[in-house]
Amino acid sequence: MADPAASAPPPRHRYPVLVAWQARMPITQAGRALQDCAPMSTRISSESFPVDLHRTGYGRTTWSPAASAANWLVGAATAAFTAPALPLLSLQDHPRSSPKQARMLMSPRKPWVTDCYLWPNERSWTTATGLVATHRNGGGVDWHGRCLAALPGGRKKLQRNRSIIANRLGRWGLGERRSLWIEASRNASLDDDAAVDLVRRRVAVGLARLGLPGKAVQRLTGARIAQPTPEVEDAMRAKFPPPPFRQIASSRPPAPPCWELSEDDVLRAARSFPKGSAPGPSGLRGDFLLQVFGEDGADHKSGVSLLAALVLRLANGRAPRGMQPYLGGAKGTALAKTNKQTGRADVRPICTGEVFLRAALPALREHLQPHQLAVGIPAGAEVMPHLLPRWRGHFCGDTGRVCLAYDQSNAHNVVDRHAFLSRMQEVAPGLSRWLEYIYPTNKPSNVFYRDTIILSAAGGQQGCPLMTACHAVVQRMLLESLGLVAPPAGTALTLPRLEPPVQLDIAPCLADDGFLGGASGEVLRALKHLLAVMPQVGLRFSSLQLVAAAGPHHRVNFDPFLALGCSVNGDGDIEVLKSPIGTDAFCQSYSQGLVDKQLGVLDAVAAIPDAQVGFYLLKYSCNASRLHHLSWTTPLAHCEAGLLAFDAGMRAAFQRLVGCSLDSTSWRQATLPLRCGGLGLRPAAAVADAAYLGSRVATAARCTALWPSGPGGADLDRWVASAVARCNLRLHDAGLPSSLRPVITNGLQKSAVTKQLDQAALAQWKADVTPDDVCRLHTGAATGARTLWELPPRLTTTSPMRNSPLQ
């Protein structure tokens, strides 16, 4: 196929912009064609992208890089892309007269509104539009971009959506342009105004009503977006360093074609997107793909075929070269954080790229096993917090063994492009052309940060769904250089190998975190070697923490480690992936610190004026974040006080929402699951043992693979035994058979243990109340009675159920 960038310009046409993109012209040629048509232009800046308003005849034609990319994405998947130059969107007097072809349509930014719409037929596209081209009687095209709100919904909302769109189209046609742009800018700036608690609360309520409780709590209490100051912009630019010279001069063999992608593969990938996933620069959301195609794709088979053709074209690197900075770019967001080393204010760059090709690859998973836990590993973040205590417990009497925990600095943005492109071509050849397109070694991609463009020329982009795998293959190269794993046969890129190979007990890693455990001399050899070879692949350590397996009884000389920049804790206390490991006092203190932060979440939820929304967030989200991870990875003895404090805060927050105080019996009923007639406000301390046992079951096989010479598979350690004993005691006190055994089997899965504990709590509650209370409980547990409590608090379904009925 001919190079798109080398295609000859088409003959002059009355739709020069559309012709330019369909003829696969570079951006510069398309821009000149547009300028020929619109010599008078006024440049303005939108919230995320610079936009040009071009005067054409009686109206204005709007165009932006993101809209250009979206326009091209449509044409790339249709037959019109390879046909003679024709207007891509040729609308006559009404949108219903548009041709039957795909349309990518942009809308104003709202956190809970689908931003980009890809319609496979002419009927469905009228339900939402944000970037519309319309003819005028005098000729020319009007582009209405970022000022036509698109509301999600089905048939019931169709008429409302059409009315809103018709109203805004009418306002645009009458020349009311400025107010529409102001409205679009105000909608788009919700993220920037998130520092204002009132706005954060309003956004959280909207997300909750869409059935996104996790995102609602995150928006309400999560990391705040850094203020738009020159210092923050400088910090963001510092996260994207210039490329090293070796990268610019690097070259690789031609990438092989992409793997064949069936329509079922594409539909399965679309279903894998988490609900509410953020869009990339084009605005296309994974949620919208499911809205268009349905869960099985049967309703819109033509749309699935269209998307499969588009994904295959992108995966083969057949997009125009001039579009690379935009299709390979991302929307950048600066989240405020504190630098762990200096304690000063810093930013965390989050880049949101396109949704295409976000699929787990079996070939990558097999290549990265067993050490890397970040790619395709269920419960991967829970493995290291379980593995290290087992290792320390086994070697608690060895005074010469140490564990070195490390963290890499800005890893995804600085890892060597040539290194991960070369290795990915060997282990995942089907992705090579797409990776070569979005991460070329000879030119940068664009990161759209507010009103500026930051060039990303080295490494990848933190937030790109493929960068976790790309960084992981480079991380494996480091393990190969230590001699822990063998390099793949015939690989063309390796690092200097340590001779003799290092002898370590364990060396797991999750993305840019990991630790090395073994004899102090071997760990020291490994550290010195890594410090020497990591700069060759663009990586460096941001923190190094050393603890001894024997704790204060060690006989390790820490001086060589201190000379290499390590921090040392002689008591053996350490935090691994937000989980405390060490003495009881350290673990209790760390857990209490996490709980104090979560109590702030409860206070924010309790302050929501809508009690239905507040109750929904308490039930589904408030104990499912870091605190939930703590109960998965930390024995109850190390976090019980903190969990009890959180449960007391949960009770206080619920009472504040309903405006009344609950006695002990009423609160115990509220903590029962919905299926038992309760309200589903589970106490964190009550389910902590079940969560810990379930996590041990989920991670047992991976721990064994990481440490084959470790203790046997029975896992009869004191933490499992004590958790099982407490669960059996609760079952016995309720008069139920205590059948749990302290062996890691499927019988200890969280769902199975939790169900038994729920029955025990229900039996004990019934024993303490009157028959009338039990009768009311059975009424609440009847089939269909709890349906309303399970629904998101939408205005259309809960308008008669406001705060008073909840009380």
Structure in words:
The relative contact order is 0.08. The strands form six sheets. A five-stranded mixed sheet has the order 13-14-10-15-16, with helices on one face. The chain is globular and about 80 Å long. The chain has 33 helices and 18 strands. With 807 residues, it is α+β, with helices and mostly antiparallel strands. Helix 17 (417-427) crosses helix 19 (467-482) and helix 22 (584-606) runs parallel beside helix 25 (640-658).
Structural class: alpha+beta
Number of domains: 3
Say how many strands there are.
18
Radius of gyration: 29 Å
Ends distance: 68 Å
What does the overall shape look like? globular
**What is the spatial order of strands in the main beta sheet?**
13-14-10-15-16
Number of helices: 33
The proportion of residues in beta strands is 5-15%
Helix residue percentage: 40-55%
Main sheet, how many strands, which sense, barrel? 5 strands, mixed
Spans of at least 5 consecutive residues whose pLDDT stays below 50 are 1-154, 185-195, 796-805
Please tell me the overall pLDDT. Answer: 71
What brief labels describe this structure?
3 domains, alpha+beta, four-stranded mixed β-sheet, disordered C terminus, 12% strand, disordered N terminus
